[in-house]
Amino acid sequence: MMHKFIPLLQLMDVDFPDGHAIGLCGAGQEVYGMNFRRDVMCLAESFSTHDNKCEHYVLSCENQYNFLVSFMAISFAGRHIVIPPNLKPRTIDEISALCGGCLLDDLRVSALLENVKTADSSSAMRLENKAADCFVTMYTSGSTGASVPVTKHLSALGAEIEMFHHHWSAQTHGGLFVSSVAHYHAYGLPFHLLWPLCAGDVILFEQITYPEALWDYAADYKLNFISSPAFLNQHAKALEEKETLEFLRFVSSAGSCLPLLTAQKMATVFPAPIVEIYGSTETGAIATRNVLDGAVWHCLSGVAMAQDAQGNALVNSAYTGQKEPFTISDTIEMHEKNSFLLKGRTDKIVKIHEKRVSLTQMEKICAQSSWIALAHLVVFENSNRLGCVAVLNDAGLNVLAREGKRALVEHLKEYLCQSFDLVVVPRKWRFVDALPVNDMGKVSQTALLDLFASHLTSEYTLKKLSVEGSVLSAVLFMPKELLYFDGHFDEIPILPGVVQVHWAINLACEHLGVNADFSSIDHLKFMRVIQPCDTVTLNIYYDEDKNVIEFTYKSGDVKHSVGKVRFA
To answer: What is the mean pLDDT of residues 173-190?
Structure first.
């Protein structure tokens, strides 16, 4: 194992020790540093000779090993790396056309690496390192949600990685770096791929999509988990159910603020506090905090914060790639010793019927209610009104099941009217299991607005219904226009669990004579997702003596979900 940190720009000039593994692919297959360096150098030679007229490379590999090899090869050849904000074909085509770059996707990189296996690498190993000429362009979401290019010299990224190592290597060294964050994200790339590569640690070249995947590596490694509020919020219950997660040596979170409630839940099972990172694509990492110790952020080394006359944050950082202070769209309150409090985004101040409204403040107040865990607001420009997409807590789920959506919305409006004029309170509401996020782990404004689109329906198609005594069986078809599908990732539209429970209660009340107040939900378990165009069978049994319904969603012999609902 390498113990010495090697700066990013000099990394490929160093021979990796025999037997030194830099990563894991597939089912625990080790990737050795010597082979990695050979792959990098041979690709760099190809870029320097065969593609000598190509100055920009659009790097769009989904395979993380292909991505990292290509990144290091392009940088060694001194070319310009362009990393799209997502891997959608249209996005890649548009960015390739704008920059006139050569496309490097998995198909091309895999073909190039296949040739490397039989090629003579001796000349490639003698290539001149031109990483000092390399620039990197990544994309950030602007205030409108449109992607904006941000270009930095590779040295700014290298300096940021050295700062990570200075702050946290005592916790991370020797651990396996795993990530739930996309590797082409401005947070995922340096934290998950480049830092451990320079530090001599091991990288898992696969993205963690479910918490259960962490246990696949827990027996052999201590884990450094690069995560986000979106993942930790969505899977808090599954993680909280574990007695201990001692194999997690280091956990970081970035992309948005981690809710205090989520941090408190994770503190019961994580062996160390979550390291929360505040930053941006333009500035790199700015500050860190442990939200359990308070809301104040503390600047990282190499970063200084100040305010302009309007209270906007001014960032002086070694990681921006520029000498002048960078202004970000956040208002702050400065504290002692280069620390500060975030007050909200300047681009989240809107006018609704001539009244100024802070969306940040209203979202915060929504989340302080008795019924909501997370909330995000959208503005309907055509009607000058607000909509709210919310994730309900247990109390909110109980009210929804017992009283219905209309009553819950009235409770929420009444609550918000204690802080805001009625005219600015959200008129439309959507309740989801998780806020929809984009590839960068940030809440997707487009997906939020789609939840309110008029072409969507809130009803399943009832294909068959039979009732015999206390047993109900219903065959339900899930139209792709069902609005609840838009509450999840675009790539994996699924029917939220709260909707499944709500449908079961409604059918039981309508057809099995259930006529009592909701009490609780027990033994709720989700085994297989329900997706658009699925046809499922919902079976409900009503135990009148116990005043309990038991429900099961199935497709053939495969169960989607089961649960019990108790009534008072």
So the answer is: 94
